[in-house]
Amino acid sequence: VLFMSLTFPTDKLPYELMLPHQLRMVTSMPNSSLQVLVVDNRPPDYGPGPSDAFLDSVRAEKNMHVMHSDYDHKIDDPAFLARFFTFPEAKDPEGMTIRKATQNRRFPNEMSNLLGMLTLMTQCLDADDDIELCSFLDSDIFVYRRPDGPGMLDMAPAMFDQNPKLIILEPPLLCLHDSVAMDSNGVCKEIPPLFDLSQRHMIIHRERLKSILPLATPWNMTNASFWGTWEKIMTNQMREIGGSGVMQCGYETVVTHPSLDVAPHLTYEEHFEELAKFGGDFPSIPGFNDTYGKGTAVFIDRYEAGKFETELSLREMWGTGPDTRYCMSMRPEKARVDAGLDIEVAPLGMWPSIVPLPQWGLNASESR
Fold this sequence. Notes:
Strand order of the largest sheet: 3-2-1-5-9-7-11-8
Number of helices: 13
Largest sheet: 8 strands, mixed
Helix content: 25-40%
Order of helices and strands: EHEHEHHEHHEEHEEEHEHEEHHHEEH
Structural class: alpha/beta
Distance between the termini: 31 Å
Strand content: 5-15%
């Protein structure tokens, strides 16, 4: 497996905490069994970043590689984009570049985001022949793995073997934490994505992705989505061929995003401010204030210990529940943080009757 990660100089959470956390949680195997690629997606006009010293130390590790996105040559290189996407409806389909594909986007970082994603995917496609799967987690994604249990990278190979159409897998989302969902062969079950694929956490079968590229893409697709260009294009293409799935075995492992909420829930910064109050035993992180340095350390400590509870319900899936936002990002409250829990307390094992379990491939006996 090639484990891939993307950093940006304005990342709020200390990378020297997040990368080791993710590597501990994605597999039960020693980290030396993984090949690790870190792409520093820093634009040319950005100066030094707070995690530069850590990135320098990563370069010294035998199984880790750090590289920079090539802004000088790839942004305006049609061949770089054409390896992944073609735009037959565009005025100049042969001259399409990352800059042109993102010029009308609503967010100023979309160009750098697409460059970073395609830099990662290029390294995945060009990896050594013994690399079967590529895994990507954004630098602020938190991962839980049951103590002594398998991680997402331990379970994914059997899932790809069982489903030859599968190209992209998403790890279990937070709402699925109560789901065992293993088949009779002990293989984690999957369901089609309910919403868009997330480009922030995915496992890719390298040769299968390579076999379908480049993808012919409607020109308006680059401007149609609130989320990333890569994310929107891949969602629609994978739906057409049935090439994507979401792992269901959340009892073993789940991922979550930081808070994206407002009152009455804690905002991103407020959440880490509250967490940092419990960070007395953790050292400060050079380059980061204690809100994010100690706050991140406290949350990792709690999350890895499984100090959270949530439920699967239609409210959670549709973004109106008290626990999570669309089962992905947490909805923290001060009382929960003070109690040592960062997500709504709900009785584990209790599945709301409104959830259509058979449609998810789950039986009531499969919830613990």
